[in-house]
Amino acid sequence: MTDYSQYKSSDFLSDDFFVRSKLYPTRETDRFWDDLIRKRGIDIIEYTDADLVLYRWKVGLLQPDQEDLEQLWQKIAVDCASAPAETVGRRHQFLVPLISVLASVAAALAILFIFYPSEVKEQDELKVDSDSMIITAPQKYDKVAIISSNSELLLDGDSPEIIYDSKGNMKLSDVPVFEKAAAEEPVRDETSQEDASQNENRTIYVPFGRIAKLELSDHSVLWVNAGTSVGYPKVFTGGSREITVDGEVYAEIAHDGRPFIVHSRDMDVRVKGTSFDISSYSTDDFSRVVLVKGSVDVASGEKVVSLDPAQALTVESDGMTLKRIDPNMYTSWTEGVYRFENAPIEDVLLKLCRFYNVTFVLPKQSSGIICHGTLELKEDIDVILKGLMRIASFNYAQKDGVYYMNFN
Amino acid sequence: MRAGLSELEDCFKRYSWDLYSYGLCLCRQTDIVDDAIHDVFVDIHANAAAFSRAYDKKRYLMASVRNKIYHRLNDRRVNQNVDISDIDIESPGQADDDIIGRETMLMDVEIVKEMVSSLNIRQREILYLRFNEGKSFKEISRIMRVQPQSAQNLFQRTLAKLKRLLVEGKIAVEK
Asked: How far apart are alpha carbons A278 and A228 in whole angstroms?
């Protein structure tokens, strides 16, 4: 039998019998230790000390909650019953992420976010700032709006489709329409043909939180992303087709012999028949063209650059960069999916804030979190944020549609 | 081969408390532990072959939960436990006059929790396996994938640190 007389507390804790008899005490083990204490076969102080360490260790542990366990089982049961074998283990349906650390600071893209010291919690103060800072493309309408010189059409629905035929008649997908005439002007019937001869310019305004599909009179198709306005004529006349874009548009340009020119703040994109994505928000500090197929010429300042398919041209204040990319990364938003590769989480949140029309308050300092993967935008913003939060170790709190993020 | 749901439920009822405690001891974040246990059970449901072969079900489950949690923690941008062992926390509770003179056995639970938190993941794990599961060092060395002697050394170092923390905590309480 072991001689415990010289045991220090750490010796007791290293002793399997001691640990197990404290963990699973029986009448015999209790009697054994009681006898030793009575016979002074052990150092009572060391023995008590060891016992105390065990006790405190257990006090310091976090305990499961029985209710949580029951809920967890419910979730397991549901997922077991519903998931086919091959998709089992997929945790975040909307996200296939790998998050890695990048030490580099990526602050440039985060400029649209509100920078606010996290310790400030005065709600009213925050609210004022959020309004004045984030919605730089003014949220004039909360619906997709088609604006002409004398009328405004407001379209309901999250992603309405607007189609012009070659005569300039407009057809709408099955969405409720609210017509709002500008002051003192008679309401015009947008769908009638009498205006077709007049080549008025139109502006489509897509608010944050919406996407619209716009087919122009030449059968070119534009997907207009959230927070974007596009100026276009009802019918293209003259030797070139020209539109203006503030925001992001994915365009599939129909080939009709005339050049198609997209004007934006930093550049003009000149194409014939092609598919490309242009992102040029006046509130961003960069503009970007991604060519999917065909060819485009991008004129920015004095320079003209020709892009090949799967190339992206980024125009920033300090110059242009041309690089090879996967176009899907940049056009997937037209299908309600955002793909990211090596994207700072600030960039991901920026996309989300535009898509969901919410405001984020972030710490000014870059988090250094880099995201890869796919975000499905069908989910509720809270579902997406919770999923992101789990994998990217940040916290957020929501108050009145403003999300306060805290990277720890 | 898939495991029957009722069989799985029995298993869950039997071991989930211990698995969860173990998980919380490792990472102290319920969402990660939730996910880990969830995935372990769903995996078993999808493919029960390895599980049914396992002689010691609890050991199998603990190892699986452990793997998931370590995997998740490594995925995170910061391994939150890397450096914590080297940080000596200031004696907590010094500013709190209310707890002066309280019995040491009734130490503030929060203080003890904080002490345990200030151990790193491996330190917490070895104490858990030792004190909550009653594992021998040989078993621990297999679970933690270290030499038995390393497990012994880690345990002694961790114990010394825990006792130091407890003493500091005690001083703070009794002062």
From this structure: 11
Judging contacts by C-beta atoms under 8 Å, the chain B residues touching residue A16 are 134, 136
Distances (CA, A) of B66 to A200, A264, B62: 67, 53, 6
- First and final CA of chain B: distance in angstroms? 62
Looking at the DSSP bridge assignments, the partners of residue A101 are A369
- The token pair at A102 is 């990048």
Q: What is the pLDDT of residues B131-167, one digit of tens each?
A: 999 999 998 998 888 888 889 999 999 988 888 877 6
CA max distance for chain B: 62
Nearest to A315 by CA among A340, A282, A280, A348: A280
Residue among A159, A146, A156 nearest A177 (CA): A156
Task: Give the CA-trace dihedral at A17, A22, A23, A24, to 10 degrees.
Answer: 80
3-state secondary structure of A293: strand
Grouping H, G, I as helix, E, B as strand and the rest as coil, residue A87 is helix
Cβ atoms A308, A291 nearer than 8 A:
yes
> Cβ distance A283 to A137 under 8 Å?
yes
Name the DSSP class of B81.
T
Chain B contacts in chain A segment 194-253 (CB below 8 A):
none
Distance from CA of A341 to the nearest CA of B (A): 16
Place of tokens 């934006």: A264
How far is it, in rounded angstroms, from Cα A270 to Cα A262?
A: 7
Q: What is the DSSP string of B15-28?
A: HHHHHHHHHHHHH-
Is the CB of B76 less than 8 angstroms away from the CB of A391?
A: yes
User: Is 50 exceeded by the pLDDT of residue A119?
Assistant: no
Look at the pTM and tell me if it is higher than 0.80. no
What's the rounded Cα separation, in Å, for the pair B175 and A368?
43
Q: At what angle do helices B5-27 and B57-75 cross, to 10 degrees?
A: 50
Neighbours of A119 (CB within 10 A): 5
Whether the CA torsion B69, B74, B80, B85 is positive or negative: it is positive
Q: Which residues of A touch B115 (CB under 8 A)?
A: 56, 60
B2 touches chain A (CB under 8 A): yes
| Cα–Cα distance measured from residue A310 to residue A300, given in angstroms and rounded to the nearest whole number | 20
| Neighbour count for residue A81 (Cβ, 10 Å) | 9
C-beta of residue A358 within 8 angstroms of C-beta of residue A401: yes
For A92-109, write each residue's pLDDT tens digit. 333 323 232 222 222 222
Token couple for A195: 């205006």
- Residue in chain A nearest B27 by alpha carbon: A62
H or E stretch covering A320 = strand A319-324
- Count of all residues that appear for chain A in the document: 408
Chains A–B, number of C-beta pairs less than 8 Å apart: 142
Number of helices (H), then strands (E), in chain A: 9, 25
The C-alpha atoms of residue A82 and residue A404 are separated, in whole angstroms, by: 35
| Number of alpha carbons in the 13 Å side-chain half-sphere of residue B159 | 21
Interface pTM (ipTM) of the complex?
A: 0.75
Contacts of A129 by beta carbon, 8 Å cutoff, 6+ apart:
A114, A116
